[in-house]
Every structure is written in structure tokens, then in C-alpha cells.
Structure to design on (452 residues):
DNA sequence: GTCTATATAATGATAGAC
DNA sequence: GTCTATCATTATATAGAC
């Protein structure tokens, strides 16, 4: 559970012999991830070792630069996912990514997307939910996971609570611009693994009355006042 | 569970016969809540019906204006909470607040604080966790809630997942500046009540192996490599 | 392709009249 | 207390030389 740096494939090329365009894009991914999307173009240019004007020359606007970063990161994630497709455990791929040193910038970037909203955030959320659903479905078939009345809703809830609680920890504990993403993941694990596992295993409510009342309520709604 | 607009006390005075200072502060609460803390001072002034210079005259800087808003909102929340102290059900006070029309601006503001981080966000989070812990503790004593190995951690997890999932929905579904907070709450309920209740009642994992393995792991850690 | 220099726009904040 | 007018800063984006 703790030392599975088993992501084999090529760590994305970050060597110095890249085109300026690629260097700018990589610098932008780093800056956006560390400091959020409010980071000035000047800083991205500085990190890439070029002038601010060259950034605009290659990408037109800051918004387009961001889109290019999103596409690039998504492509990498997709590659890693399809590459580890043989691994049964799709769900924890993101977790492994978070622990692997060389993918830290991409994880930070994805996190900023989740924080800022937008198309990529929605896509990411859907992917997380779909992965969780498939994973749980396999568990149900294997008998290790309880079946659900609505597996899709359950997966979405798990994605929202998992990602959301992480989002919460970051905004609470890292008010400054720079986020040590791996540290947050560690804090999250230390603080929440016990209660989560406990609740996932034993539940929270001692009796079924609330659930039954809700099921009765939705099966026979009083009146629709929308 | 669905029509408890039972918050009796005075809806905060929003009439037109307020000092300009109070009108500016109220306008700021509205703007910050709807549009986030990036809203220009000019817009706050416009909504308050005064010049931007008057805003600075009364509050010095935008940051101080924000602090004044935070203090004002916290004072109102505190009043409502102490007022409904006789109600056993402290946890759902915030939920009722969210549904009550006249408190919507304050809830939106609090949400923006949670989204932006800072001192108030931490305070809010601690309050949520403390309320939940007290509520669950009463449930444990009454026999309706299962006991936990670490009630405080459980309460914090519930606060983080609850607030975090809401945060997630907002950033995903409301990319624009304006947020219809009550609508998000409604979506959240419709989408997540079933899976949450199901999981809280029946659990997720069919057997105890993961929990037991974790408990064994923490009781006898392999080696500390920090 | 890459740079320096500059235009343009937005925003927080100030000066000073009334 | 309240306003108009303005400043200073910062950001994105452009123009044009090399």
C-alpha cells in the first residue's frame, strides 16, 4: 500500500533539449500548478528562460496557453492510464501518480483545475467517478464490496467527497500561493484513513430508520412543488 | 426534513434607513458572496449606491472591508446559533440557514470564505466539526449512532467530505462568477442523499479485512522513514 | 524565433473640493 | 460625509527591430 512506485512508462521528457514552445508549456504547467492560474505570464516566461513576448508569440493569449497545458497534461494522464490498464486497480492510479516524484507537477496542475472549475475539471470528475464505479463493480462481483441501489450515484459521491475533502484541506492549510501537494496527500491520509475505513466498514447509523424513511419518501413523493 | 423554516429571530436589518457604512458593508457581503473576493471595489460601491472613494473612506482598504464583512457575518451566525441553542439539532442549523431566503447572502459569503481559505475558513471548519461531533456524541448515547474509535477524527472527516463535496459541485457546475447557492444545495441533496444514507447505514465494504489491516498497521508501524 | 519597448486596460488607493 | 478627478501599479497584449 505504501511503496508502489510501479508506474513504469517514460517519465515525460523534461530534458533541456526541447523547443522553446515546449519549454514554455512545461514552465506554465509548473507555475499554474504551484501558484494557481493567477500567476503572471512574466513568471512563466522567467521560469522558461524566455521573454514574456515569446510566450504570447507562441500561444497567442494566456487563456490559450492554459488550454495547451490542459491538453498536454490530459494526454500524459491518458497515456499513464492506458499503460497501466493491465493493472486491475485503476482507482488508485491517481494516488500512485500523486506519490511519484516526477508526476507531481501534473498532479498539482490537475488539482488547480479542480479548484478553478472549467471543462477539464468536469472531465476529471467524470473520469474519477467512472474509475471508482468500475472498481467498485469489480469488488461487488468479487464479493468484497456491498452492492448499491445506484452504483453510479455512489461512485460520484465517493469522487466528490474524496476530491472535495482534499480540496478543503488545501484551501484551509495552504493559504499562500505555493502548495506542497505531496504533503497535503500525506496529511489527508493520516487524518482521514481511519474514520473513512471505519465508516466504510461499519457504517455510521445504528439502525435503518433514516434510510428506510428516505426510500419511502422518494418512492412516493408528497407533491412536486417545483 | 424538508420544510423547517423554523429560524425565528430577527432577519438582519436590511432596510434602507441604514448608515452609509452599513449599506456599503451589506453590499460588500452580497458582492463577495455572489462574485467572490475578486469583485472590484467599484461594483460594491455601485451596489451600495455610493462612490468608490467613500468605500475606502469608511474602511481604509479592500482587505479591511472584507474583514468587516467576515466579522459581521460571523456575528449573525453566532446569534442564530445561540438563539436556536435550545434546538438539540445544532448540526442542521447551517442547512436550515441555507434554505432560508433571508440568510442566503450570508451563506454565500461563508461559502466564499471556505473557497478562498483564510482564518475564517479555519474557524468555520472547526465549528462544523465540533457541531457534528457533539451531534454524533448525542446519537451514540441515544443508541442511534455507532461509536467510533476516534470521534473527533470522524467528525472532522464528515465536515471535510460534506463541505468539500459541496465545494466541488459549485466549482464544477458554476464556472461563471455568479452562484445560485440554494440551487447547489438542492442539487447536492438530490444527487447525494441516497448514496450517503446508504453508505452511512450499510457501509461499503463487505468484510473487515481492510480496516483490520489498517488498525494492525498503525498499532505496529513498520519503520518511520520521515 | 526572439527580443526590447510600449500600448492599453483594470484596479486599489489618494487628493482635495464641497 | 461624500463626491470628482487622478495617480500608481500591475497585467495582458502588441509593434517592430534583429
Amino acid at each position: 500500500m505504501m511503496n508502489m512506485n510501479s508506474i513504469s512508462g517514460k517519465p515525460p521528457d523534461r530534458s533541456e533539449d526541447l523547443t522553446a514552445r515546449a519549454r514554455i508549456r512545461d514552465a506554465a504547467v509548473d507555475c499554474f500548478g504551484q501558484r494557481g492560474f493567477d500567476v503572471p505570464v512574466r513568471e512563466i516566461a522567467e521560469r522558461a528562460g524566455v521573454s514574456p513576448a515569446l510566450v504570447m508569440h507562441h500561444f497567442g493569449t494566456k487563456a490559450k496557453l492554459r488550454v495547451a497545458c490542459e491538453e498536454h497534461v490530459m494526454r500524459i494522464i491518458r497515456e499513464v492510464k492506458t499503460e497501466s490498464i493491465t493493472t486491475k486497480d485503476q482507482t488508485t492510479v491517481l494516488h500512485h501518480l500523486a506519490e511519484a516524484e516526477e508526476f507531481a507537477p501534473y498532479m498539482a496542475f490537475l488539482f488547480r483545475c479542480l479548484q478553478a472549475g472549467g471543462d477539464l475539471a468536469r472531465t476529471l470528475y467524470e473520469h474519477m467517478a467512472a474509475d471508482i464505479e468500475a472498481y467498485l463493480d469489480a469488488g461487488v462481483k468479487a464479493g468484497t464490496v456491498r452492492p448499491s441501489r445506484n452504483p453510479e450515484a455512489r461512485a460520484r459521491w465517493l469522487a466528490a467527497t474524496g476530491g472535495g475533502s482534499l480540496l478543503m484541506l488545501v484551501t484551509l492549510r495552504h493559504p499562500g500561493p505555493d502548495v506542497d501537494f505531496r504533503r497535503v496527500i500525506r496529511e489527508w491520509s493520516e487524518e482521514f484513513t481511519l474514520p473513512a475505513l471505519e465508516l466504510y466498514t461499519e457504517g455510521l447509523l445504528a439502525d435503518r430508520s433514516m434510510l428506510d424513511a428516505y426510500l419511502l419518501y422518494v418512492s412516493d413523493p408528497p407533491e412536486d412543488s417545483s
User: Anything to note?
Assistant: Residues 20, 50-51, 53-54, 57-58 of chain A lie near DNA strand C (CB under 10 Å from a C1').
